[in-house]
Automatic annotation (TrEMBL):
Keywords: ATP-binding, Magnesium, Metal-binding, Nucleotide-binding. GO terms for biological process: folic acid-containing compound biosynthetic process; tetrahydrofolate interconversion. GO terms for molecular function: 5-formyltetrahydrofolate cyclo-ligase activity; ATP binding; metal ion binding. Its cofactor is Mg(2+). Substrate binds at E81. It catalyses: (6S)-5-formyl-5,6,7,8-tetrahydrofolate + ATP = (6R)-5,10-methenyltetrahydrofolate + ADP + phosphate. It comes from Neisseria meningitidis serogroup C / serotype 2a (strain ATCC 700532 / DSM 15464 / FAM18). This is 5-formyltetrahydrofolate cyclo-ligase. Belongs to the 5-formyltetrahydrofolate cyclo-ligase family.
């Protein structure tokens, strides 16, 4: 069980799931596209007030990962992805070191560069998934240099397997971390993005947890 699941307050719903070795066969591309459309539709249908309340609660739950000096990977939200504004402000105030993804040309494996204290200054769009990729000065590190990585997602199942935007950047980055000192990987999103089971491919790695407005799940 991950440490974040211990000694939590009563507003958090906690569950630990054990992985079933019998996984569904791989999805065809058109099936994945259809599932992404469905899950994005669920997220888009959230009312403004419901979404705002959920965002506040998720950002509050994420604060348990903050520790002075801890290196935490965050992301700049695209589209309807969960915003991390409250978490970022709290982490900067408490002395955590935040990092944003950086994608070099002709590569899917991400670096991470320091998050500027002044916030987002500029963005670039690259890749067929049209990912917003911040470009900042500062010493870049690989994912295994982080203590915690907050991972955006389109969907996640009850064993921690993630469905992303289809760009493959997080998949390639997490796969490269497989045999090295690992950061704790925490998926973040809304409860409507949780599904019972996703099909997986050989290179897919499950996340360590998922934080939504419903609480924290540990895998």
């Amino acid at each position: 069980m991950c440490a974040s699941c211990l000694n939590v307050n009563k507003i958090v719903i906690i569950a630990t799931f054990y992985r079933n070795p019998e996984r569904p066969s791989e999805m065809r591309n058109e099936e994945k596209h259809a599932l992404r459309r469905e899950l994005r539709g669920r997220r888009s249908q959230m009312g403004w007030d419901v979404r705002a309340a959920a965002t506040v609660k998720i950002n509050r739950l994420l604060k348990r990962y903050i520790k002075h000096g801890r290196k935490i990977g965050v992301y700049w939200p695209m589209g309807k992805e969960l915003r991390l504004d409250g978490f970022v402000r709290a982490a900067q105030k408490r002395g955590a070191k935040l990092y944003l993804p950086y994608i070099e040309p002709r590569s899917r494996r991400m670096w991470f560069t320091p998050y500027p204290e002044s916030g987002m200054e500029r963005e670039r769009i690259r890749g067929r998934a049209r990912l917003n990729v911040p470009q900042f000065a500062g010493r870049k590190i690989r994912v295994h240099g982080l203590s915690v990585l907050l991972v955006p997602l389109v969907g996640i199942d009850r064993e921690g397997y993630r469905l992303g935007q289809a760009g493959g950047y997080y998949d390639a980055t997490l796969a490269a971390m497989k045999y090295r000192l690992q950061a704790k990987t925490v998926g973040v999103g809304f409860a409507c993005q949780l599904v019972d089971r996703l099909s997986v491919e050989a290179h897919d790695l499950p996340l360590d947890g998922f934080v939504s407005e419903a609480g924290i799940l540990c895998f």
